Amino acid sequence: MAELIFFSGTMDCGKSTLALQMDYNHRVRGRGGVRFSRNDRAGESRISSRLGLETDAVEVFDSTDFWEEVMLRRTQGQRIDYLICDEAQFYTPEQVEQLAKVVDEIDVDVFAFGITADFRTRLFPGSQRLIELADRVQVLQVEALCWCGRRATHNARTVDGVMVTEGAQVVVGDVDMVVEAAAAPDAEHVPVVGYETLCRRHFMRRVTAHGANLMAQQDQLLPFDVDACLWRGSGGPGESRGPGSKA
Strand, helix or coil at 140? Predict the structure, then answer.
């Protein structure tokens, strides 16, 4: 029987890589399918992995009707056994319901891949509806890492390396953004929007890799609520405690 399966995880955990691998596995077994995506980092009508894999896809818009997309292809004689739906967090709840209908009414497997929560730790509407309707929700086993080395559990949005918690839910950016410590003059500088995966501790404390690097470079005493033991000379385990260090 066909299934609607939602593969979820943070950024950088291999969702798009798995989507491309699953598409390959089904195609080499003679099954026919369609790849869908929305707002991929490589541009419109693409599915891309940070490992360098990339292929074409059908771009999803708010006006896209998955039931009509499948029925149109079938009436044209195309074999449709499964759908690969990448960046599914950006789909509307109505589109997720259309995917469920495709599974239930015409036995087409749907493999959806997406982030569960946004940079504010709020569920994306598409992800929420997938959790509500999917036959199975599978959290990817490849763990993304925080800059401190712990397992990353949250997606953070940064502007010039500084974590922000307000703004539009969807803003295109990538985890590969690198922000220099010395910014350009305000009159010429265009803020760089990026994304970073953080463990819960550093998400709650709003400590990004950029901020941690600045603290380390300045060799300053760290605030009490930051993991002071992560920086050399801060009085962490194995080091002598200097004046002003926290017990």
Answer: coil
Burial status of residue 55 (CB atoms within 10 A of its CB: 0-12, 13-18, 19 or more): middle
Place of tokens 């470079």: 217
Reported as a single tens digit per residue, the pLDDT across 80-127 is 999 999 999 999 999 999 999 999 999 999 999 999 988 888 899 999
Q: What gap in Å lies between CA 234 and CA 216, rounded to an integer? A: 9
- Amino acid identity of residue 194, one-letter, is G
Burial class (CB in 10 A: 0-12, 13-18, 19+), 75: exposed
Q: How far apart are CA 47 and CA 53, in angstroms?
A: 8
Helix axes 66-75, 93-106, angle to 10 degrees: 40
Nearest-angstrom CA–CA distance, 226 and 205: 7
Q: How confident is the model over 165-175, as pLDDT tens digits?
A: 877 777 665 55
Taking the C-alpha atoms of residue 15 and residue 181, their distance in angstroms, rounded to an integer, is: 31
Element (H, E) at 63: none
**pTM for the full model?**
0.69
Q: Which residues are catalytic?
A: 87
Residue partners of 142: CB distance under 8 A and separation at least 6: 9, 13, 14
